[in-house]
Each structure stands twice: as structure tokens, then as C-alpha cells.
Amino acid sequence: MTAPSYRVWALPGLPEVAPGDDLAKLIAAALPGLADGDVLLVTSKIVSKAEGRIVEAGDREAVIDAETVRVVARRGALRIVENRQGLVMAAAGVDASNTPAGTVLLLPEDPDASASRIRDTLRDTLGVEVGVVITDTFGRPWRAGLTDVAIGAAGVRVLDDLRGGTDAHGNLLDATVVATADELAAAGDLVKGKASGLPVAVVRGLGHVVADGTGGARALVRPAADDLFRLGTSEAIREAVTQRRTVRAFTDEPVDPDAVRRAVAAAVTAPAPHHTTPWRFVLLESESSRLRLLDAMRDAWIADLRRDGRSEESIAKRVRRGDVLRNAPYLAVPCMVMDGSHHYGDERRDRAEREMFLVAAGAGVQNFLVALAGERLGSAWVSSTMFCRDVVREVLDLPSGWDPMGAVAIGHAAQAPGVRPGRDAGAFVEVR
């Protein structure tokens, strides 16, 4: 059996590409010996030039803004963004190299369509069935350095799905999907180089990756729901805080207790006075413990409302507000403890001491809610345990020094919360 192999070489003799040029015909003239099953690797810069994607760049940052759909991460002058083509990359792919002074190149408007046009023209001109990959240079999460990847493709199996097969030892492959088009792009870059003036390469010997009806490089873009690294660190923290929403309706899907414990671990990193740890979290994981607590709290609430002179109809309506806790598949009761607090024997300072611990407890609860959102769990903080602390302590058999600070309903949201308008920081700021 012959060992698998392929050949890759850069295409010499290609003239400088200008707007309006038929790029495929230029390639055909420079490479009349193109054969069935070859894969053509074309640097996006020359595609952009041929398609007239050259713009004046008096303000390159404004051009990047115009091409940006979403900022993923920002570090100083560097911006990683999602651009109009759905690609996540530096500066939206706006390139100031290899273009006349005062101008920048935008990426092809539709790289898959560009690849398809080149492929069709090569078929018509040379009578060959080839694959075409449009490439661009990317940085990568986790890895230093740059490499070429596929941003457009036609006639190439961009992904090789090996799931369901077995390896050489008979082990089932259940997660292996190979990014074939990216591997081809990187192979081509080894011979094209970044500054050699050779923008096209050919791969021969891998005809099995060339096929009709294979779709384009868009299939390489990971859907947002599956992207575990959708944002940079600071952007993710800011998004988690601002996108945390109160969820009042949950599905029946069970809650992973380990996810809640990870949220507790995040909660107890909140600031606290005197290097204390004023947080305790009571996790009600069984339905019986939740119902026992909620029934006792409901009875205490009804007794309070009756003392207030409320009608039975009014009482029933108010008690229904507690359904968010009763319908949640998981409850947590955050508690404040004053362990390590100072006692001054002075009402003013003792009151301030307790307020310090309250602020720390609130910071812990906020950390908890944000961390739950990061675990893709919905939550609703409800203050009701604060109105019947003795009842809660008795039912849950808590120490007398534990002060319940509300309850948190936890579960998978039954529906996405509505859009909340942003708030202007200026309305909440006084500068002195």
C-alpha cells in the first residue's frame, strides 16, 4: 500500500491584481496545467483587490467600526471583533498592507461566493474540476503566532466528520471533526509566505477532498450557542454582569449541583471586612426540603398579612408571588454570619459594623447570581426569607447567628428574558 502524500507549490507569474480583473482567468493563464482534483489556495487580498474592496482610509478605526458586528475583546489599540462575514478576527480583517498608501483592503463581501465564481470560471476556461479555498491570516485562542485559515471555499469538503468511526485501536470517535479547509490553507501558506508576493498555491494529490455540493467555509464558523469562548475576559465579565436577568419561569430540566457549587466558589471571593468570610449558602437540593421550607414561610407570611388586616383574596394574590420559588427545581438560601465582627459597645459604630457585613453579603449574592448566569442557569433572588428568619432557621436547623438573606430560585430558563435597555452611567454619577 502506497503511503498517502500530496504536493503543494506556490504559483509564480501572477501579475499585480487590480480592481475589475478576472482573477480566475489570470490564474488560468499562469497555470494552464491545473488538473482535476487540485485545490487552489487563494489569498483573500487579491480577491478583495479584484472585487474593488479598496477604500480610502483617512480613519482606519472608522473603517473597522463599519465592518464590525460585535466587539469580542479589546486590549489597548487591538480589537478582536466579529465582522460582517461572521468571522472573529483582529481589526475586522481590515488590512493596510500590500495596498496603496492612504487606502485599506476590506475582506471579500462573500468569500464563499468569490470561491465559487473562481471555481466556475476555471471549469469553463480549463475544463477542470478543482476545489478553491480563499484564505486569510488569523491569530488563534490558546496558541501564539498566526496561521492561514479558510474564509471562503467552493468544491472542497471543509469539514471531515469522523464521528461514529473508530481509530486504529478500535476506539469509537465521538467528537472528531477535522477542519480540512483550514489545514489546506495552512499548508498553502508554507509556500506562499507572508511577504513573498506569491498569493496563490496549489495542492495536488488530495482529490478526495474535492467534491460538488460541499457547502462553503461558513460551516467553519462555530454557532454562538456552541462557542465557549465567545468573549474576551473583561468583555465576558461585563456581559455577565449586565446580562444577568431575573428568571421567573423554569423548565423541568434538572440543575447540576456541581454548577451551583462552582457559583458558590465564585460568590465567596467577594470583598469582606476584617478578612472574614461572612457567607454561608444553604442548598436545598431535594423537593421535600424545598416544600418544607416554602410551606412554613407561606404560613408565616399569611399570618403577617392577616395581622395587617388584608382580605383573604388579597392574601391569596400576594402569596402567589412566591410561586417563583415553589416552581424552581433548585433553591439556595444565602446567609450572613457575623463571625469575626468587631464589637465597640457604641450603637453608631456597631450599626456601621453590621452594615459592612451586609454589604459584603450582598456582594456575595451578586457574585453568586452572575456565576449562575455564567453556568447558563437562570435565577431569581427573592427577599422573603429575610421577613421570617426565625422560621427559616428553625425549619433548616440553622445556627442562631445565621441570618438568611433571601432565597435564590435556580433553574434553566423557560424562555429568554426580554431585551433590557442600557442605563446611562451619568444618571447615577456625581463627580466632585
Give a short overview.
By secondary structure, the protein is of the alpha+beta class. It has twelve helices and 17 strands.
Describe the structure.
The chain is an alpha+beta fold and about 425 residues long. The protein folds into 2 domains: about 5-225, CofE-like (60s Ribosomal Protein L30, Chain: A, 2-Layer Sandwich), CATH 3.30.1330.100; about 245-430, NADH Oxidase (3-Layer(aba) Sandwich). The protein is about 35% helix and about 20% strand. The protein has helices spanning about 25-30, 45-50, 60-65, 110-125, 180-190, 235-245, 255-265, 285-305, 310-320, 325, 345-375, 390-395, and strands at about 5-10, 40-45, 55, 70-75, 80-85, 90, 105, 130-140, 145-155, 160, 175-180, 200-205, 280-285, 330-335, 380, 405, 405-410. The protein has a 5-stranded mixed sheet. Strand 8 (about 130-140) and strand 9 form a beta hairpin. The mean pLDDT is about 90. Pathway: Cofactor biosynthesis; coenzyme F420 biosynthesis. GO terms for molecular function: coenzyme F420-0:L-glutamate ligase activity; coenzyme F420-1:gamma-L-glutamate ligase activity; GTP binding; metal ion binding; oxidoreductase activity, acting on the CH-CH group of donors, with a flavin as acceptor. It holds the Pfam family F420_ligase. In the N-terminal section; belongs to the CofE family. One of its GO terms (biological process) is F420-0 metabolic process.
